[in-house]
Amino acid sequence: MEKEGHKYIFVIGGVMSGVGKGVATSSIGTILKARGFKVTALKIDPYINVDAGTMNPTEHGEVFVLKDGDETDQDMGNYERFLGEDLTRANYMTTGRVYQSVITRERNLEYKGRCVEVVPHIPLEVIDRIKKAAEESAADVAIIEVGGTVGEYQNILFLEAIRMLKLKQPQDVITVIVSYLPIPSKIGEMKTKPTQYAVRTLNGTGIHPDFIVARAERPLDSKRKEKLGLFCNVPEERIISAPDVESIYDVPLNFEQDKFGEQILETLGLQNTQPADLSKWSEFVKRLKVIEPTVSIGIVGKYFGTGDYLLSDAYLSVIEALKFSGAEAGVKPVIDWINAKDFQNGDGLEALGTYDGILVPGGFGETGIEGKINAIRYARENSIPYFGLCYGMQLAMIEIARHKVGLEGAHTVEINPACSHPIIDVMPEQKDVIAKGNYGGTMRLGVYKAELVKGTIAQKAYGKDSVEERHRHRYEVNPEYIETLEKAGVVFSGTSPDGVLMEIAELPKEVHPFFLGTQFHPELQARPLAPHPLFSAFLSAARDCKKGK
Ligand code: GLN
Q: Whose CA is nearest to atom 3 of ligand 1?
């Protein structure tokens, strides 16, 4: 039997999606890390898309960009935030990525003329990738979340990979099923049957869960535990009650209370070298619960409506970044979702006057763009703190060019390639890419360095002279308009080391209490225990704005 250094915890979903598999995965990581283990987390996305960059954010949620530029699922953001670590492209795979490697290998004759089959070659490639990720991060434990739910056609080959790995290394592999127990209002009782079916379906793939994380509105009572234990064939103490919580950051603390960590170590045969130290985490969770004072933040974006439901998942990292800075400063940011389309004709902008801060997040394309520009103008002219992220910075430059400089035809070539004043232009290296229609994974992606200008708002907030931040964009401030914008009062407080690319733009404090935009996405590096300085500066300005009202 193969013996090696890494242990593997697979997390799969039962009954339905969206019940917190990603948070469970992240929280398991947090409690193991708190014991001194080196932990890494992987996400398996069953989509054929090679990365999340080409997926629709309305359906799939935010595209989370890793340090190395990989465009991934928003769960990767949760892992990074809970673990407080940067992950790499080795930690993310999609069905498309797995097939792509197998097919490339086949074309290169690496299978030495043998028949290449879905089983075992696809699951073997999955196992290979998981092992590489564990290896790369020197992890004691790798936690792997399998997207989708048990019983779906799409993730069957990933379950097959778990079965095959467990067969080879039974002592190194455990499986956790995160299931849901509904309490139908007309019945008024928590029902275990859907979870029983989910476990049975999982059993049909040759996998038996070591743990059940029982998600429900309320905690599990002993009757339900007993029933689940008996019918699902899982010892009662390995059924972890996971009721709805006020904040997802409570989950590691709840897991710990249920002795989940200890039991995981026991099932994996790992020695508990040190007791779990979650003191910093608990302090953060406590601070997060501050309810006063509040600051109201309006996020002017799109992507919100899906049928009858309003989704804000596309901006998940922005929301979390605001929360972390709020917890640090002892203020509660209250977020309102504002549909940019509402301001398309410039009507009704006074509604924005009630906010202490306005934020325009990243975005693409034409939808709601004039509404965003109008909202930015309102924030600038009415001294409301403004924070623009990527598109939010580009549009702020267009706004200033149009209304302060008077360049009516100011625009981005993304929307109007023939505009008379291309304030935001395509990056030279992107011209080719666009001409070839080669869109997947071809933007300026991942971490780039920016030099900061001494004494500016950005430099003071960061407290250093250079930073590394994550990017995801195809367009840039056009060098030909830098002087014009500077004459209009814009200070480019962060630039690429060669001075060519404008990374941060701001208006000086004498002119506006806080008007700052970044070409990068600061939200992607905000962490619970290390809030992002620019978000903190924005919130602090919002707080002052509220006081002054
Ligand atoms: N659409 C813009 C660009 O490609 C901004 C991208 C973004 O906000 N992430 O440059």
A: 473
